[in-house]
């Protein structure tokens, strides 16, 4: 029997990762302004956005008919940011922005922050921070990768589970966290809610 939660995200990657640990989800994405606040640090940023996503999702559920969505289920939200030189790289605005991001990451180590927010009987939070090192990339490779269409809607302009895996020289931390949902931390939060995945 699988555990069931509400996921405040339309990300197919997060849904697939939860399915990997036998968690089924009701998808209920929310729309909010994810612009960083002035001088907001990356850690504070991802924690704030994840918390705001789960709070907005829970509040929205409370206004809907219980026949449509079971608002008694815990709500999980996440936010991922690619960070280099203490600068948050969001989703590329266009090709020029995407190429600039990948050029910045080329030959260097950056961090991927993913914050989790779980609202159930209480509100719990966790953060995964992973170091990712790219090999040196050529201009031809960067342009070719952009033209695949893969990086256009990804934080930092790349998807580690896709063709950008060719660029990753090393990773120190959570692979699933770089994908957008650190499974170790997710399981810890669900256990606090009384959902013990290997015993469900």
Structural commentary:
By secondary structure, this protein is an alpha/beta fold. It has a single domain, classed as Alpha-Beta Complex (Maf protein). Helix content is 32%, strand content 26%. The protein has 6 helices and 7 strands, in the order βαβαββαββαβαα. Strands 1, 2, 3, 4, 5, 6 and 7 form a 7-stranded mixed beta sheet that branches. Helix 1 links the parallel strand 1 (3-7) and strand 2 (23-27). The N and C termini lie close together (6 Å). The mean pLDDT is 92.
CATH level 1 name = Alpha Beta
What is the terminal separation in angstroms? Answer: 6 Å
Strand content: 25-35%
Structural class: alpha/beta
Count of discrete structural domains: 1
Number of helices: 6
Range of helix content: 25-40%
Instruction: Estimate the global geometry from the Cα principal axes.
Output: globular
CATH topology: Maf protein
Structural Rg: 17 Å
What is the mean predicted local confidence, pLDDT? 92
CATH architectural label: Alpha-Beta Complex
The tally of beta strands, per DSSP, is: 7
Residue stretches low in confidence (pLDDT < 50, at least 5 long) are: none
SSE sequence, one letter per element: EHEHEEHEEHEHH
Q: What composes the largest sheet?
A: 7 strands, mixed
């Amino acid at each position: 029997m699988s555990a069931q939660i509400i996921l405040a995200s339309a990300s197919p990657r997060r849904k697939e990762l939860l399915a990997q640990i036998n968690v089924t989800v009701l998808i209920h994405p929310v729309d909010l302004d994810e612009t960083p606040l002035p001088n907001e640090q990356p850690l504070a940023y991802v924690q704030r956005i994840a918390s705001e996503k789960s709070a907005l999702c829970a509040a929205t559920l409370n206004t809907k008919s219980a026949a449509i969505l079971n608002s008694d289920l815990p709500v999980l939200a996440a936010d991922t940011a690619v960070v280099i030189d203490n600068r948050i790289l969001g989703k590329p605005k266009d090709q020029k922005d995407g190429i600039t991001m990948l050029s910045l990451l080329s030959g260097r180590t950056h961090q991927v922050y993913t914050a989790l927010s779980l609202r159930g009987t209480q509100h719990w939070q966790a953060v995964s921070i992973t170091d990712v090192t790219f090999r040196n990339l050529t201009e031809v490779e960067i342009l070719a990768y952009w033209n695949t269409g893969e990086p256009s809607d990804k934080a930092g302009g790349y998807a580690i589970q896709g063709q950008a895996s060719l660029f990753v020289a090393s990773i120190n931390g959570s692979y699933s966290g770089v994908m957008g949902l650190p499974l170790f931390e997710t399981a810890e939060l669900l256990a606090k809610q009384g959902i013990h995945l290997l015993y469900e």
